[in-house]
Specification:
26% of the residues lie in helices and 17% in strands. A hairpin with a 2-residue loop joins strand 7 and strand 8. Helix 1 packs across helix 2. About 6% of the residues have low confidence.
């Protein structure tokens, strides 16, 4: 079922993963381990098995800048984080959806409850761990940057000369500790040009991910996921659940498979 650029597949996602182009963004909304829809495990203990094939497919089809927005309960996400890490997903942050006090109106008995009422839902934001497939094998991006510069035979301090900076190249771009920072595309272009112009001719090309052609600034920029900052938008989203026409629904009026719906409510679009 298609409309414009969107296609809705009313069946298991595993049936269509093979048709994917590399996605820029993946949004996962269930299973939650609460028995919220047919096939959702009744407890979080069943989630790792439920998600195994899905996470493997996401990892297989993702490109280096693909991001994953993973909706779940607190315990569901905690249970699945090790699986996501093993499959090459790097945790960025947690976003909390505050649905407001109206979410529990009429749904909570103060005489019998023995915990705080729940008005939140969690979304964990992940990006791909930057590991390159190079002629020397798989290598974390930070190590590859340092290794390629060492191959040139140039001293490290000349990387600062290449970038036109005092010490940012050696202190951030080529370091191997927690201060490492992905070089912006402009700076990477300068590093690549300098290495290939002044490095040992016998080792050229330098900074060629495929071993044949030096990476360009445009290609380098694609390794980093897009982000458009909006002032005032934080990791706590305060918004009541959508209802009625503003909620996502299938053609027959039912909620989408994998969506947790309570009283006709779904998360805001």
């Amino acid at each position: 079922m298609s409309r414009g650029l969107s296609t809705l597949h009313p069946g298991p996602a595993q049936e269509v993963y093979g048709t994917w182009d590399p996605p820029d963004l993946i949004v996962s909304d269930g299973a939650y381990g609460v028995g919220g829809f047919p096939g959702d495990p009744r407890t979080p203990q069943g989630l790792a098995g439920w998600y195994a094939d899905h996470v493997a497919a996401w990892s297989n089809f993702a490109h280096p800048a693909t991001t994953l927005w993973f909706w779940n309960t607190e315990i569901g996400w905690a249970t699945l984080h090790p699986l996501l890490e093993r499959e090459g997903w790097e945790y960025v942050q947690t976003i909390l959806w505050d649905k407001g006090i109206g979410h529990i109106a009429g749904n909570m008995n103060g005489e019998t409850i023995r915990r705080l009422p729940i008005v939140t839902e969690l979304c964990a934001f992940y990006r791909r761990r930057l590991v390159l497939k190079t002629p020397m094998g798989k290598m974390p991006l930070c190590r590859w940057l340092h290794t390629e510069w060492r191959r040139t035979g140039l001293p490290l301090y000349r990387a600062n000369e290449a970038c036109g900076v005092k010490n940012a190249a050696t202190r951030k771009y080529l370091t191997q500790d927690w201060l490492w920072y992905l070089p912006p595309a402009e700076m990477m272009g300068k590093l690549v040009a300098f290495a290939n112009a002044h490095g040992d001719p016998g080792g050229r090309p330098y900074y060629a991910i495929d071993g044949k052609r030096p990476v360009t600034a445009v290609e380098w920029a694609r390794l980093r996921h897009p982000w458009h900052h909006e002032h005032g938008l934080t990791n706590v989203w305060s918004h009541p659940p959508s209802m009625g026409q503003s909620a996502i629904g299938a053609m027959d009026g039912a909620s989408l498979p994998g969506c947790i719906t309570q009283g006709g409510m779904q998360r805001p679009i």
